[in-house]
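User: What would this chain look like folded?
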Amino acid sequence: MTAARRSRPPFRATAAALGPVLAAGLCAGLLAQPSPAAAAPAADQVRIHDIQGGTRLSPYAGRSVADVPGIVTGVRTYGSRGFWMQDPSPDRDRATSEGVFVFTSSAPRVAVGDAVLVSGDVGEYYYGGEAAGGQSVTQVSRPAVTVVSSGNALPAPVRLDARAVPGRYAPQGDPAAGGSVEGLALRPERYALDLYESLEGMAVAVADVPVVGPSTPYHELWVTVEPRENRTAGGGTRYGSYDAQNGGRLKVESLVPVAQEPFPSADVGDRLAGTTTGPLDYDEFGGWTLAAREMGPVADGGRAPERTRAQRPDELAVATYNVENLNPGDPAAKFERLAAAVADNLASPDILALEEIQDDSGPADDGTVGAEGTLRRFTDAIAAAGGPRYEWRLVDPEDGADGGQPGGNIRTAFLFDPARVSFVDRPGGDATTATEVVRQGGTAALTYSPGRVAPLDGAWADSRKPLAGEFVFRGETVFVIANHFASKGGDQPLAGRFQPPARVSEEQRLRQAEAVNGFVRDITAVDRRARVVVLGDLNDFEFSPVTRALTRHGALRTAVASLPRDERYTYVFQGNSQVLDQTLVSPAIRRFDYDIVHINAEFADQASDHDPQVLRFRP
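Assistant: Here's the prediction, encoded as structure tokens.
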């Protein structure tokens, strides 16, 4: 990772354990000259396993320790600078780790293989702060380090594989502690998260493991040590329920600075070949992490972006694509890649609902809300890529009212191919005026098209409002509702200290789902044969309460259920392939062909972090 993401503040410890003396800034590590041989430790000397203890919190937190012996097993010279050391003489307790991180603040002056004695202050550091919900890292700060000898043999790494990692993910948190597992005795033979905690700071190794999360600009990738666990068609691990957390996932990053050795590019379906070895760390950007001292090569799995089939003349193709903060300031290459995906990989759908279209000044917070420039540049690029000359419809948001990147004013928008489909324009809809359902000529119609669904409802506070439009294809009316529900920001992490993690953001999406469900039922109450397509980035899973709220009363059914389970994913997060983008249809759309077109989420080189999807049916 880059220093910006891995930078660790001077010191952070459990609130109850630490006094004001540890709140001061850290001094740099102090180093004595190496002496020829290590002195035998005293019988009452504190060892690393004493510091780590048998729970997630050190019994020595808030206390000082002196002359703790260990062998240096890894050195980090960037970001959160320091080193890991491990006791070569472990105890017999599986729950107590034999490794610990020593935070030096400045670049440490030790080398792998050094035998050291470390004195300093013990504490618990929380990446992102305690409120983020992650687990803490036990560390020694304000260190005084004595190098006793160099070139020592390293402790043998613990091999992590399917036999080592328990099938259960995490213990149930203590209700008296708000669901925290921190005070529970570790059971590494029973729970995956307990196993990793019992190995915190120790050297571990993985060998010839599948890549389940592509490499990122932050120089990281995800692997799984349980290769048969919930596999996807693309070779990833599928997150198919709240109880299928896939405990074999580990993040891998390199301890070697990128300037010295470039981080490999890897896609889902590749393999991290050979043996990768290094200390086991934890951070807020992925949980348990193998900080690789030695990293194996990436073996190409041959995964290639997919292409969907073209719609037949009598099929209407409706697609959705999150284009990730698209604005005129983006490089031409991004527009060209997104446009080529629409024209080629999506086979030029008749209607395309877009999420994350930014205003014409992009992230500049200057009061601009119009997005004509963004859409003109995008539709020009699609035409240049061989696609149709799309027209667009949208409703601009109020400045700063819809969330997303500050200044960007992201919104949903419709593109449509006028040679194949027509848009029913009923003007009058704006950022705060709701479109309604009325009876017109014996069938349902919208008062405003395009129009926003219940924009003043509190469910949409600081969030994108749904965009509804009325289309006509071969003489038949189709209602399309484009959505971008509230993000998952604020939810507790899957690998955090609260188990099960609280999904606090879900409450708003539930209210949003209920509003959309009610609007669809308004349409079908007027015309039970109405064809309605609800689609977009819903920021929630196909098995979630949010999806159940959308489908309540039989108003909608989700198209993703028509796919084989191993094809159900649109996004990859921390090595879990999952559904965040969805398409749902009203009962009148009885038969359809649905495809999630995997072109981004599994690949290191991606134009967006979401995969688009397309629905084809005969109205």
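Residues 316-617 form a domain with the Deoxyribonuclease I; Chain A fold (CATH 3.60.10.10). If you want, I can go into more detail on any region.
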